[in-house]
Design goal:
heterodimer; A: 252 residues; alpha/beta; Spore Coat Polysaccharide Biosynthesis Protein SpsA, Chain A; 9-stranded mixed sheet; 8 helices; 27% helix; globular; B: 178 residues; 19% helix; 21% strand
Chain lengths: 252, 178
């Protein structure tokens, strides 16, 4: 299978042992005729038994980052992205379920001409089996965030993945990543009506200001031409068929 | 506090951008800490009198008579605490320093109130920190047709939002601008 027919599904996770099985089951049930699939999960130091859950998926490519405090998903997502071999990347959260068997195929087949495609994502309340009306992203909420979406690995490498400057603060990592893709790679995102369900879970409320200040500064400097739309650790070296980790080394 | 003055410089709006910025420099030069931005399309050549900012959001699905006018909504995503929008068909004729004086900070949005009860969206002051997700919230309501009854201009859409949410818009009156 050539790299342009290989799809790498890249996830980062932390303490979602109750949610990630549904996510992985829905990924492995996808019908992707003519493509090869690799699924890469980086566990960002979970202590809730995620390891044992992931053991049930022997074909999974797994990494684990050790840390004692919660961080943004930046380092975990980058670890998965840097170890991807496919030219086609599915980026998604570890709590998103694919609701039909053609989600990945639809996202990937719509990539030419757009370079980034996004599924419609709704909140799914597992207790009541209800789906909320509000779209996280989709045709009526055009937010180019990879709750569940596809892009080319070459573009991810060109912007250097997610920015480590936003790795130890919460929020804006995905916003900046999207800004970089949109501006550096001239991506024209396409929002599809293939559906993903976000499994509802309680979240802590974090102070957004530290992340906002960093993000605003990065964006302002880029707008004014004082820096490129680029992760501070980017770009990554891209070679078809070889992961960034193989080309550059394995640091996240 | 970061502040930017922004105008829309796409298609028909492009011609007026430089005269507007020149008139600003002549009659009411903003401090050097205030950035001057022109919203443009990706393929437009950059301007030399301000910073060109490509509009990276697709607004073409909005039910507006002038599809291009919706690109001004990109101002709500700019990474500044305060964004001052000036329509490119306007000219500055006197002191406008009140706009960047940091006095206009009590409301999310300031605009001139019109006799019909709506707002004039040709001059706006947007205080980003008062609602960080405003752009997405506004566009979401627009896309679920919440404002269809208000009309098909960008002004109608903004009026629709502030009527629907019952949020007060600060009044800009008596500005030296025509």
């Amino acid at each position: 299978m050539t790299p342009d027919r290989m799809i790498s599904v890249c996830l980062g996770t932390r303490n979602q042992s109750k949610l990630i099985p549904q996510t992985l089951d829905s990924i492995y049930s996808q019908e992707i005729n003519g493509y090869e699939l690799e699924v890469i999960v980086t566990d960002d130091g979970s202590d809730d038994g995620t390891d044992a859950v992931l053991d049930r998926y022997p074909s999974l490519i797994r990494f684990r980052l050790e840390n004692s405090t919660y961080r943004n998903g930046v380092f975990a997502k980058n670890m998965s992205l840097r170890n991807a071999h496919g030219d086609l990347i599915i980026q998604q959260s570890s709590d998103i379920i694919h609701t039909s068997k053609n989600v990945i195929a639809s996202l990937v087949e719509a990539l030419p001409g757009h370079r980034a495609t996004f599924a419609t994502v709704y909140n799914y309340l597992s207790d009541t089996k209800e789906v909320e009306e509000f779209q996280y992203t989709g045709p009526i909420n055009h937010r180019p965030f990879f709750f569940l979406g596809a892009c080319y690995r070459e573009d991810v490498c060109r912007v250097g993945g997610y920015d480590p400057l936003l790795g130890n603060v919460i929020y804006y990592d995905d916003t900046w990543h999207s800004d970089c893709l949109l501006n550096m790679c001239r991506v024209k995102p396409l929002f599809l009506d293939v559906i993903g369900w976000h499994q509802h879970h309680n979240r802590r409320i974090y102070d957004t200001k530290p992340a906002k200040d960093i993000y605003y500064q990065l964006l302002r400097e880029s707008i004014k031409g004082q820096r490129n739309y680029l992760s501070s650790a980017g770009p990554w070296k891209y070679e078809p068929g070889r992961s960034v980790a193989e080309v550059e080394g394995s640091l996240a | 506090m970061t502040t930017a003055i922004v105008t829309l410089g796409t298609k028909d709006n492009r011609e007026g951008c430089q005269p507007l910025m020149d008139s600003l420099e002549k009659h009411s030069p903003p401090p050097s800490t205030v950035d001057k931005l022109v919203l443009c399309d990706f393929d437009d050549p950059p301007v030399d009198f301000a910073v060109s900012v490509p509009v990276t959001v697709d607004y073409s699905d909005l039910l507006l008579d002038d599809k291009d006018a919706a690109k001004k909504f990109f101002m709500f995503l700019l990474p500044y605490n305060q964004v001052i929008y000036l329509d490119s068909k306007l000219m500055c004729t006197g002191d406008l320093s009140v706009l960047w004086s940091e006095q206009l900070n009590q409301h999310l949005l300031y605009a001139k109130h019109l006799p019909d009860g709506g707002i004039d969206d040709r001059v706006m002051v947007f205080n980003h920190d008062r609602q960080l997700g405003f752009h997405d919230a506004f566009l979401y309501l627009a896309r679920v047709h919440m404002f269809d009854g208000y009309g098909k201009t960008s002004r109608d859409m903004l009026n629709g939002y502030f009527c629907h949410t019952k949020r007060k818009v600060g009044n800009l009156q008596g500005l030296n601008i025509r």
